[in-house]
Design a protein that fits this description.
The N terminus and C terminus are likely disordered. The radius of gyration is 49 Å and the shape is rod-shaped. The protein is built from 12 helices and 5 strands. With 443 residues, it is of the alpha+beta class. Helix content is 71%, strand content 8%. Strands 1-2-3-5-4 form a 5-stranded mixed β-sheet, with helices on one face. Helix 2 packs antiparallel against helix 3. Among the domains are: 143 residues; 146 residues, Heat Shock Protein 90, CATH 3.30.565.10.
Length: 443
């Protein structure tokens, strides 16, 4: 008998332990009473069988009866009381009859001694008749009362346990499980209401999640729209304030060259050289504008190559030394590539305009948790507390970078202090970035 058997059959185990203890006591105290042990084993086995039947088929039958729990309990109490009263009446009647017969025998012994012996024989025969069944009726009433009580109790306890477990699941947020209770009473009705409530809560939960997703999607669409509008305003300013007047000036100088060609060819040639040089500068500005919109290197060289090219161009134009620590090969989905590149681009632009730095260090690494990008300079720094409101150096740009990071489920942090440079860190969870999803290898 192993521990698992004892656990699953604890009632049998307790009964056997009790019989063993009783047998040990009888063996020590009264060895002649050991013959009662088989009888006790039979009675214990009978009671256990009654318990199994009462807690199984009989309990299910009681549960399906179309009465309230109150009437089921009252019925069980009434049946128990009726059996006890009936057995008690029979016992009292038998004892009264035997008491009366004993008085009659005593009277016959004094008056007619010869008839007393026959009266004793008659009493003995009746004792083995109906009245002899009185102890047996008492023993039969015991399992009936026990079985009925266990059946009614089990028909209540079992669904209550199931409902308690279901309520714990609902409280933890699991609305998918269905509570199965066979009771055809208040408990069955309560279980049905719990199922209906769980279904309604599940629908409400799904609706809430759908509303949250819809709101998040609207917010992201708004952020993308605002970013697009900001990009369009920047391009408009570049064209209106820079390229437009420059081209207009070149047109005027070309008209001057038309008049100088005939009157002063050397001056016209010199002016054309200046116009050519100016046009080259405007062409370079247009290329920069195009690269800012969608760098061709991002399609041709990939993210790592584009970052390297951007750092090289930044160093040549500003004289600021750049250091990079990037992987030799990295493949990402297109949205993550653009986001990372734009953050690098915006950080370098802020360093160029505001930082007065001498060195810039860029680090990009892929980990099990996702992607980590950091850009650090040794410039004059600033107080990042007002960045959300757009205050401070580069405030609008930092807000724009944070919005871009949120579009891919990333998190942007800024560490800076006046005179101590600035460090911008972007982390994107691996759940949000499809590493290796791009069809083109990036190297």
């Amino acid at each position: 008998m192993n521990l698992d058997f004892i656990t699953r059959h604890r009632f049998i185990s307790l009964g056997l332990a009790g019989v063993a203890a009783l047998g040990l006591l009888l063996a020590v105290a009264r060895p002649e009473a050991l013959g009662a042990i088989p009888f006790l084993l039979v009675v214990g086995g009978l009671l256990y069988a009654v318990f199994l039947f009462a807690s199984g088929p009989l309990a299910r039958l009681v549960a399906r009866v179309g009465l309230s729990v109150r009437w089921k309990v009252l019925t069980a109490i009434g049946v128990t009381a009726g059996l006890l009263v009936g057995v008690s009446i029979i016992n009292i009647a038998a004892m009264d009859y035997m008491h009366q017969e004993l008085h009659n025998i005593q009277a016959l012994e004094n008056t007619r001694p010869a008839d007393a012996l026959s009266a004793v024989d008659e009493l003995e025969s009746k004792q083995h008749g109906l009245f002899g069944l009185t102890p047996l009726l008492g023993l039969l009433a015991l399992p009936i009362v026990l079985g009925l009580g266990v059946a009614v109790g089990w028909s209540v306890i079992s669904p209550v346990r199931k409902m308690s477990s279901a309520m714990r699941s609902i409280a933890s947020g699991d609305f998918s499980q269905t509570l199965r209770v066979d009771n055809n009473d208040e408990l069955g009705e309560l279980a049905s209401r719990i199922n209906d409530t769980a279904k309604e809560l599940g629908q409400l939960h799904e609706a809430t999640l759908a509303e949250e997703r819809s709101r998040a999607l609207r917010e992201r669409i708004t952020q993308v729209t605002l970013a697009q509008e900001e990009e369009r305003r920047r391009i408009s300013r570049e064209l209106h304030d820079g390229l437009g007047p420059s081209l207009a000036a070149i047109v005027n100088r070309l008209r001057v060259c038309q008049h100088l060609v005939r009157s002063d060819p050397l001056a016209a040639e010199s002016e054309l050289e200046d116009v050519t040089h100016s046009l080259k500068g405007q062409i370079q500005d247009i290329r920069h504008l195009i690269l800012d919109l969608r760098p061709l290197a991002l399609d041709q060289l990939g993210l790592v190559g584009s970052i390297g090219q951007q750092l090289e161009r930044f160093s040549k134009e500003t004289g600021i030394r750049t250091y990079s620590n990037v992987p030799g090969e990295l493949t990402l989905d297109p949205l993550a590539e653009v986001t990372l590149f734009r953050v690098v681009q915006e950080c370098l632009s802020n360093v160029r305009k505001h930082a007065s730095a001498s060195n810039v260090e860029l680090t990009l690494q892929a980990t099990d948790a996702g992607l980590e990008l950091s850009i650090e300079d040794d410039g004059r720094g600033f107080e990042p507390n007002g960045m959300n409101s757009g205050a401070g150096a580069g405030g609008v740009g930092l807000v724009s970078m944070r919005e871009r990071a949120e579009l891919v489920g990333g998190r942007l942090s800024v560490e800076s202090a006046r005179g101590r440079g600035c460090k911008v860190a972007l982390s994107i969870s691996a759940k949000e970035v499809e590493v290796g999803a791009h069809s083109r290898p990036v190297s």
